[in-house]
Amino acid sequence: MKKISLWIFSSLLALLVITSCQKENIDTLTEKEETVVPTITTISPPANALFSRTSNGSTAAESGIDFDCVTIIFPFNLLDNKGMVHEVANEAIFIELFEATWDSTEYIVDFEFPLNATVDNGEVIVIENNDQLGALFAECVPDGGWDDFIFPAYLIDDENSCYKTVYPISLEDGIDGSIITVEDEAAFIEVLVEKEVYFHFPINLTDETEVISVASVEELFNTLFSCNEVYEDSLGWDYEDGFEYIYCYEINFPFDVFTSDGEIKTVNNHEELCDLMLQGELTDYVYPLTLTSPEGEEVTANSAEELEILFEQCDAEVGEFEQSDVFLLALLAQPFTEDSTSVCYTINYPISGTYEDEIVFVFNSDKEIFEYQSNPTSSETENARLDLVYPIGITRQSDNQVITINSIEDLFDVIQECYDGEE
To answer: Which of 38, 59, 274, 287 is most buried (CB neighbours < 10 A)?
Structure first.
């Protein structure tokens, strides 16, 4: 019996487990309700919440600090809570100020206004106060910071989508987990400057003809994607991984697309692709389109029809892989490396596998599964990939806990935990 090496294990995981790019973890949240009503006062928070949305290392890093769609141009000044001014001449100084060891009596709280800034269309503007900065920033489409449960709040309106926000709307404080209800756009912008907030689902959006209730991050992506004229839902796009994959293919930057105004735009990175997709600007690809297959080979689609064929091949590969449940179950129960005796789990035998829902095989050990894989019992089942009969039981070795597995996805969730523990 061959022991599975870590690199093989990682490759297998990649087929069913999508790791998140730029995902942020949050603790279990305790809901506390508060309502924010519109005011005309200037917000003076303990620290400007917009600092949490900087994009260090962006293409704008040489000219300024990128806040999604607004770039604050160097040099600019920051204020600490004692009123001291700190000049920021480059990104290194900005990072150093926020990485410095501040105590509870001295820390950076805000910008010193006015600020010179560049917006998405390249125009240089002057920002006089936090209200103006908040209004600009509110419509910036996030290019990260989400996971399966949270999505950074931003103002969805006809400037960046075919949908508009319906008020009142609930937001979730990313620091203390409280739920904040905002009654209109002015209150929304006010909260964005004051707090690090996420959408609290469900939220309502409208396209001026009907109101749509959005109950999750996945539904939000699907709704925003529907503004596009191509791939109108997020099924194929790996938004969890920063829009760097579509189906099983890695996207090769740069590439060209058609936008809603009929122009051809070059997409240089996943941030630019995020903006186009979430704003509903992508209408089609400019062919030929080159992608990278799961095997690392470049493949080219010369038309939409050829691209669809490539996607169908992804589905076929995934389907074939899922039929290997029995073998994978045993394979992933082996030690992580050839030099290791540590395993993630052991299988609670007996288990059963079916071939084309007709022939049932019962296995009582890992050895029997590997022997079957090498020597099918009849020509009728030669090279057969068996489907597991769920549920099955496994025992996690780290804590000797018996776990019921109802699908291959459940199994890979357990495996991912084991793998993370080995890193």
So the answer is: 274
